[in-house]
Input
Amino acid sequence: MRSAGTHKPIRVLYCILDNRCGGPHRLAHAVAGRLRQYNIETVFLLGHKAGETWQPDGFPSFLCRRIQCFRRQAPLRNLLRFGAALPRNLRTIRRIIESNEIDIIHVDGVTNFVPAWSGHWTGRPVLWLYNDYLPPLLQRLLLPLVRAWASTVAVQGHCLREPLTAGYPTLRDKTVVLPAAVDTAKFAADASTPARRARLRQELGLPADATVVGTVRNINRFKGYTYFLEAAGRIKKAIASAKFLVVGRKLDTDPGYWDHLQRLTRQLGLEPDVIYTGFREDIPAVLSALDLFVLPSLQESCPVALLEAMAMQVPVVATNVGAVREMVTHEQTGFVVPPADSEALARAALTVLALPESRRRGMVEAARRKVEQEFALDAIARQQNELYQSMRARAPGVGH
Output
């Protein structure tokens, strides 16, 4: 591994398995921008699932196909293709590491093990973000790889460290907490928010006086959209003016789930009231149009979209998954309900919407302070810099 003096930047290869833009991409891109003040440069490596490939503005990126070992669709065929492409992909990623003089491999997700393998092969330290919920068989297959190849493992909440590493004391010993972050300058309510709210509502055909409840997530079955729609049906019965926004990409990898949601929308009589916007870049504007943000997920780690809503001072209702309890203090900065419970979602939503304006204002202001104090982009970038510096200092032949 090349020697790197203090005047030379740390070069990080940030590896995301999905080529389609989502919360992890927005987070990684925002942090990478902040890390430049610490003389850290980021190169992105993306796997390929389907659809249009995200282009990280201002940063070099590479696309590597067939590095996803496990897929729901045609799993055996995918596994065979993965195995056939594996030697070439390992060599390709090694060349990317060496030609870009990469110091650290930062891997997003345990199932994204091919870049970690390449990093270990080249002797680079690997920071592995463990944000997956793995079935038992995959745990037994993959966690030994994480334990062997990762220099440091990151989880996105203190409450996640113990359950995610249970039964693996060596893994637990190398695990640190690195929360998600939000750009509190970009996601902020200001004097322009009312006009932005009016413009977006007009664009989407929403009445100015409608009560708008929304969620922002790519559309897959782990995001709990079935329960969101069922809760919407209950909310609509109580609030005739209610409208519902579903903001997120329809995924080609799970078309059956999309069809299920469309049938459910019709069955609940919500076709005039639910707007599926597809993927949108203007998330601050979308959030400004909402009266309530709902996170109905069944599985999460530290959901960026929830932090963004809190930063925008939109009231939130979220399911108690992942590190949500570390993000939302129940009845103080939002409401937390059990997952897979549409009645609880609807009840909490109606409670929030019925709060006196002064109480609701106090709640969203407290949520904003929580984000600023614990999840602001600059603070998380500083933690990430310290982690990278420590890893490079410990790497053989570097910093010694």
Notes: Confidence is low (pLDDT under 50) at residues 1-5. The chain has two domains: 10-181+377-394, 193-374. DSSP finds 15 helices and 13 strands in the chain.
